[in-house]
Amino acid sequence: MTVTPLGIPRRLLEFDIDGEAARVPEGSTILDACRAAGKDIPTLCEGDTLRPKNACRVCVVEVEGARTLVPACSRKAEPGMEVRTDSERARHSRKIVLELLASSVDLSTTPRVAEWLKEYEAKPDRFGPDAARLDEEPRVDNDLYVRDYDKCILCYKCVDACGDQWQNTFAISVAGRGFDARIAVEHDAPLTDSACVYCGNCIEVCPTGALSFKSEFDMRAAGTWDASRQTETTTVCAYCGVGCNLTLHVQDNEIVKVTSPHDNPVTHGNLCIKGRFGYQHVQNRD
């Protein structure tokens, strides 16, 4: 029998979303409330294991009485609040943000972006071929994961996961300012010369594929990566006694990458180098 912990009861707040009454526990964000109400709000920088960063601005909604649009991922729901998720103003803002991102960043491996571009009639090509892009080759300097900054939207999720919110390694940070801002390790060195401990928790939270398993990168380059043919099996890591959960992604009877369930009370989506990358021995058939 599964026992669900009750936790501390929280007072319910009542407010309005698109003309309909909504009730959510106190402390919930507008995005939490929208999802509970079945509203599909696009978001890129929001992560269920990290504190909101308000970086991508794709999830903005209109709140009655507010001077500006507010990010749904971080704005707390308040009693009596009137929220409009699909107003002309909110839709126009999302359209512009998507156009700016897609014109300057390679979003080809970002889930659902093609769907959002179509929904909001965004036309990133209108900025022309001279739109600012990094045009940087992927950094392949180790055997575990690849950094492709052409796909980075500066959401800072990798910085937070590597820093004080989870790993406390602080190998990743933001270098430069303004248009020159970018994600880097100290002194922009090769990953092998940095403080990285290869836990891969930055890969787990990256929303665009700017950070990816070397195995996935190689398969995509070869044209053999096919997520629709992959199965996912959750098991327990056998390396130590902590009890971390692993989700094995298998294609053609080969493990192609490992993730971890975000709702697991032990790992919350985080792993160490052994759990994340130490799976080769499982399929060594020699």
From TrEMBL:
User: What range(s) does the 2Fe-2S ferredoxin-type domain occupy?
Assistant: 11-89
One Pfam family from the UniProt entry? Molybdop_Fe4S4
Q: Tell me which Gene3D superfamilies the record gives.
A: 3.10.20.740, 3.30.70.20, ADC-like domains
Domain (4Fe-4S ferredoxin-type) spans: 143-162, 188-216
Annotated ranges, domain 4Fe-4S Mo/W bis-MGD-type: 230-286
Q: Which UniProt keywords apply?
A: 4Fe-4S, Iron, Iron-sulfur, Metal-binding
Which CDD domains does the UniProt record give? Answer: fer2 (cd00207)
**InterPro entries assigned to the protein according to its UniProt record, in alphabetical order:** 2Fe-2S_ferredoxin-like_sf, 2Fe-2S_ferredoxin-type, 4Fe4S_Fe-S-bd, 4Fe4S_Fe_S_CS, Mopterin_OxRdtase_4Fe-4S_dom, MopterinOxRdtase_cofactor_BS, PSI_iron-sulfur_center
PROSITE patterns (alphabetical): 2FE2S_FER_2, 4FE4S_FER_1, 4FE4S_FER_2, 4FE4S_MOW_BIS_MGD, MOLYBDOPTERIN_PROK_1
Q: Which domain of life is it from?
A: Bacteria
Protein's name according to its UniProt entry:
2Fe-2S iron-sulfur cluster-binding protein
Species the sequence originates in: Streptomyces levis
